[in-house]
Amino acid sequence: MDQTHLRAITELRHTLHRHPELSLQERNTGAALRQFLREHTTCRLVERDGWFYAVKPGRSPALAPIAFRADMDALPIPEGIDLPYGSVCDGVSHKCGHDGHSAALCGLALALEDQAPERTVYLIFQGAEEIGQGAVRCAELLREAGVAEIYAFHNLGGYPEGTVIYRPGLTQPASEGLTIALHGRQSHASAPESGRNPAEAIARIALHARELVSAPHAGMVLCTVTGIQVGTGDFGISAGDGEIRLTLRAEQEDEMKALEQSLLDFAAQLAKEQGLNMEHRIRDYFPETRNHDACLQRVREAAASLGIPCREMDALWRASEDFGWYTKVCPGAIFYIGNGEDYPPLHTKGYDFNDRILPVAVDLFTALATK
Fold this sequence. Notes:
The protein is an alpha/beta fold. It folds into two domains: 3-169 and 288-370, Zn peptidases (Aminopeptidase); 174-285, Alpha-Beta Plaits, CATH 3.30.70.360. The protein is built from ten helices and 16 strands. The strands form four sheets. The protein has an eight-stranded mixed sheet with strand order 1-2-4-3-5-16-6-15, with helices on one face. A four-stranded antiparallel sheet has the order 10-12-8-13, with helices on one face. Strands 7-14 form a two-stranded antiparallel ribbon. A hairpin with a 2-residue loop joins strand 1 and strand 2 (51-56). Helix 2 (27-40) runs parallel beside helix 3 (98-114), helix 3 (98-114) packs across helix 10 and helix 8 (293-306) packs across helix 10. It is elongated, with a radius of gyration of 23 Å. The two termini are 16 Å apart.
């Protein structure tokens, strides 16, 4: 990678890190990225609602375009470590490395100024990945532009630094956040029979969730209780309202939806038996992410041509990723680049994107875009 380009995108990455923004709030982040691209490239920029893309026209318009995706949102996690470019936003920081993903995509844009591509290249800068609302809004662009294939990368600890990690087929599972709320009637704690307390029903839902995932399944199925709230905690009041929050996760979306329906049916029956009103909400929905064989083979061949070591993952990465919305529209692949075997994990205070893997990402993207 051109060292001048590397210095430029490293500085950009640090600027993005210093000013992180949460999902659906990435206005300044997007503006900073567009300003960088305007100053350093001839890409055409197109703004959409909460995201944007850049286009580098190819020399052969008859060839179908190729696309690359970077996410740009941060997390509600305090910085936690002393960095010269540390977050200036209280309680918000880039603890998943989306600042690095965006900087790498800008590095590809710089490289395409020097290596004019045969086919048109779309660079998608997407927000709201952390809550599963970003890619679903961007995926229609692939149809509009007739994109033939799409790629993305994610940084990942626990693997040798700079190594390309990949998994054929299913690489990350589907997941969703399910909230079940039960409403009864509050009463004095000395006369609980006068009210309808949802505590027992919520406890039974939690136990039933464990039973459901303990049953045999075709693949991995998980149900994690992430929160329970019943009443106010005041010792003189028998609770009248409560809710349980669960994260459902499965290798197949239909398995996840079947688990959801089983939980809702069970909760509805309990509510009916105990005279409670029930409602539910679903958020942070992620489809399963599956790599297409031909696209993944292109990644492996590009890495080999660059002398970048590759390693197949033994099992799927359990964290969800909204890149699956793109691969519902056209073939694609997401791969991972190792941060280091002892590198701090993602979504923790000790984490910061590893700048040393930026050249690996840019070189691999460039090879995919130009060969």
